[in-house]
Design goal:
Shape: flat
Low-confidence stretches: 209-217
Number of helices: 5
Number of strands: 47
Strand order of the largest sheet: 39-41-44-43-42-45-47-40
Largest sheet: 8 strands, mixed
Distance between the termini: 21 Å
Radius of gyration: 29 Å
Number of domains: 4
Mean pLDDT: 88
Strand content: 35-45%
């Protein structure tokens, strides 16, 4: 049987225009109650199946728990459901010990769990198993109900220029609750490039319970103040605004659009290259000159196409900006511009333009992706690098005009490291499971420096540094003629990212169709300069069964594994499958490669 991988992303709406990721929560999958109509539940709209559970309901589901996984900061999660799952429908719940933006007080609310839906994933088959993906955002009435349980109150808003309707970035928005004698300051936030802000507060911030703090109406009555970072007032609403019908006694989720007259000019940030994928190379990679160039948390080298990103600005010194990347192989290869051929399609931001009334709640805007090395089309605008690698940043800056508005997302280029140098391939013809890869051996990591250069368009005299990654380890070497299927169904495969070979000694000695009796010795070879975990297991009646490796895991791991915790002679006569799983400590910065596999079958006499 092959593994089932279930991946997804969860978010929740604060209001129709303001989603947020369900970050750092626990997703729980449950087998469906046998008494339920699975087909009906699986096709039901999640709006009809959402439910916040009490403790007894959670306890009642415990026996049906299939798996748990944590969401990351973006709401992403991954389940490896193993071989005791066959692709059937399951219930999707979320357990909240706390929720995003919660203020933890002396008496925090108890954890809470809610059911989203019963889901029948649509799996697709790959060489590594079955994979399904699910992306879901909770409607705001559901997500806000969960936030209310944890006493999380949220204001999500946007600040615009009253005349141009363009977003105003970098201003401070303060929120207040109007009271008779003493107004409550609920919090403040700075607007981002889209003019958006989120202010989070809790009930205690406006329910003080003193004789001074008396509410005219039982709930926060909101009014706002907008200032520059230096404190100059741009908008000062009166307390009476909090008594308006759309501001009084608001719920725990509230969205607002504010406009200011004469928005102050916000200077462009300085362009800075700082990340490889999601790794900050100053803090997450051992990138100092004598470092190993790998990730600090899990010791991974890099491979394949890597995303170089950070802060991308439109202008430098007040003028349109362009940038390029340069690289050198260490110890002293010399700086070389990254040509267009080494850049893969990169989405560097979004272009948008108003197509109707910008105050329309349906947000009527035309949008396109802005790419480097993309394909022009109805939904895509493209920047083409110059022959010497310079990339001009789009300058569109008028959301209401024909030209539209470009928003950088921080991406700069996707660098095709496979073509930086000639990596070559290592030929393992003649080497079989249980034996060392020496000779011909293994590849070794190679080390590079990567830097970003910025300048005013066409002005070499203005060129300056945009950040330097001093050392990064990269390995794109492949392995040819790797023996798969052992003695039972041998084949040679090439272009392998790592080496995973398994065989059974009794089949090697007695022939590929020999039956196993009282002994079972598994030959294995797992090799890569950045080798991760190595494991051998066997499926079949009564399984899965484990094996003990002959020794510790090293870059060149090989030997004969023996049964662990079971007696071969006692196995039921039947067919069994032995599988080798080999992890590789590699990353693109955004994703890691799937483990390498090899397996073979045999019959037990």
């Amino acid at each position: 049987m092959r593994n089932y991988i279930f991946k997804g992303r969860l978010c929740g709406y604060i209001c129709a225009e303001c989603p947020e990721p369900l970050a750092n929560l626990q997703v729980r999958l449950y087998r469906v109650d046998k008494q339920c109509n699975v087909a009906a539940l699986a096709v039901a709209n999640p709006k009809e199946t959402f439910a916040i559970l009490d403790g007894d309901q959670v306890q009642g589901k415990e026996s049906r728990l299939l798996a748990k996984a944590e969401t990351d900061a973006e709401g992403n999660f991954t389940f490896d459901l193993g071989k005791n799952y066959a692709g059937e429908a399951f219930e999707v719940d979320v357990y909240c010990g706390s929720v995003p933006r919660q203020k933890i007080g002396r008496n925090p609310p108890k954890p809470r769990q809610f059911t989203i839906t019963t889901l029948q994933p649509r799996y697709r088959e790959t060489e590594n198993g079955f994979i399904a993906a699910w992306d879901y955002c909770l409607p705001y009435r559901f997500w806000c109900a969960v936030l209310a349980w944890f006493d999380v109150w949220t204001i999500c808003g946007r600040v615009l220029d009253c005349k141009t309707k363009q977003p105003v970035a970098g201003v401070k928005v303060k929120a207040f609750d109007a009271d008779w004698l003493a107004d409550d300051a609920l919090g403040f936030a700075l607007t981002n490039a889209a003019g958006k802000f989120i202010i989070t507060y809790s009930g205690v911030d406006f329910r003080q319970g003193t004789w001074i703090d008396v509410e005219l109406i039982g709930g926060p009555d909101l009014y706002f103040r907008v200032e520059t970072p230096g404190g100059a007032v741009l908008l000062a609403e009166s307390q009476s605004q909090g008594r308006a019908s759309d501001r009084e006694n608001v719920g725990n989720c509230f969205c607002i659009e504010l406009c200011i007259e004469g928005a102050p000019p916000i200077p462009e940030p300085y362009p800075v290259f700082r990340y490889v994928g999601g790794y900050n190379f100053l803090t997450d990679i051992d990138s100092v000159p004598m470092g190993d160039g790998k990730t600090l948390a899990d010791d991974r080298a890099f491979y394949s196409t890597i995303r170089l990103n950070g802060i991308l600005s439109k202008r430098l010194n007040g003028n349109p900006m362009e940038y390029r990347f340069e690289w050198e192989e260490l110890p002293a290869g010399g700086w070389t511009p990254v040509p267009s051929a080494l850049i893969a399609r990169t989405v560097i931001g979004l272009w948008e333009r108003s197509v109707a009334n910008p105050m329309d709640p349906n947000f009527p805007a035309e949008t396109k992706e802005y790419t480097v090395k993309g394909t022009p089309g109805p939904g895509e605008l493209v920047v083409t690098p110059s022959p010497d690698g310079w990339i001009q940043v789009p300058q569109e800056s008028n959301f209401l005009g024909v030209e539209g508005l470009f928003f950088p997302n921080g991406n700069m280029i996707n660098l095709v490291t496979q073509n930086l140098v000639a990596w070559g391939a290592i030929n393992l013809a003649g080497i079989t499971a249980g034996n060392s890869t020496d000779p011909p051996g293994l590849a070794t990591d190679r080390f590079f420096s990567i830097r970003m250069r910025v300048r005013e368009v066409g002005n070499p005299a203005s060129e300056a540094s945009g950040g330097v990654l001093q050392r990064i380890a990269i390995d794109n070497t492949l392995y040819d003629n790797v023996t798969k299927g052992g003695t039972w169904a041998p084949s040679l495969v090439s272009s392998q990212l790592g080496v995973a070979m398994v065989d059974i000694n009794e089949l090697v000695v007695g022939g590929s169709c020999s039956e196993i009796g009282a002994t079972l010795n598994v030959r294995y070879t797992a090799a890569h300069p950045n080798l991760g975990s190595v494991s051998i297991s066997m499926s079949g009646p009564g399984g899965p069964y484990a094996f003990s490796l002959a020794g510790p895991v090293t870059p060149n791991t090989f030997g004969t594994a023996t049964p662990s915790g079971f007696v071969v002679a006692n196995l039921q006569p039947c067919a069994y499958i032995v599988g080798l799983t080999v992890g590789l400590l590699l990353t693109t910065g955004d994703s890691n490669p799937d483990p390498r596999y090899d397996q073979l079958a045999f019959c037990k006499a």
